């Protein structure tokens, strides 16, 4: 009979510290009083929902980012982490932000199915950036 060893890995500990902290005490969860843009997406596989609201200044810099939604700890914590990360960045910088970089922000290995949860807010962000009037790659 083979040896089965259950270990707590570093990523499990980080999951507890980072994901659960953002899930239990999210950064900028709620609504902006007058957002420049708002978008909502759902993950049809699990029903998670994330809405992002951005306040973008005349220099195309994200002044504030808020989220709201419902779903698993990963989708909601990832949206919180994302909001914290993008504030102060220009839309051009956000255009260059990749899915791999988003997953790196989470600091935990996710299965393919859980990656959809972790990337839901990212998907919303990319839709907002590319559809925002005045965005470098968006509509005029």
Q: What is the 3D form? A: globular
Low-pLDDT residue intervals, each spanning 5 or more residues: 1-14, 135-140
Look up the CATH topology.
Sufe protein. Chain: A
Helix-strand category: alpha+beta
Number of structural domains: 1
The side-by-side strand order for the widest beta sheet comes to 1-2-3
Which CATH-level-2 architecture? Answer: Alpha-Beta Complex
What is the beta-strand fraction? 15-25%
User: Oligomeric state of the chains?
Assistant: single chain
CATH class: Alpha Beta
Can you put this structure into words, describing what you see?
Strand 1 and strand 2 (49-56) form a beta hairpin. The chain has one domain (21-131): Sufe protein. Chain: A. The protein has helices at 10-24, 73-86, 91-96, 99-106, 112-118, 120-131; strands at 37-42, 49-56, 62-70. The chain is built from 6 helices and 3 strands. It is an alpha+beta fold. Helix content is 44%, strand content 16%. Strands 1-2-3 form a 3-stranded antiparallel β-sheet, with helices on one face. Helix 1 (10-24) packs across helix 2 and helix 2 (73-86) crosses helix 5.
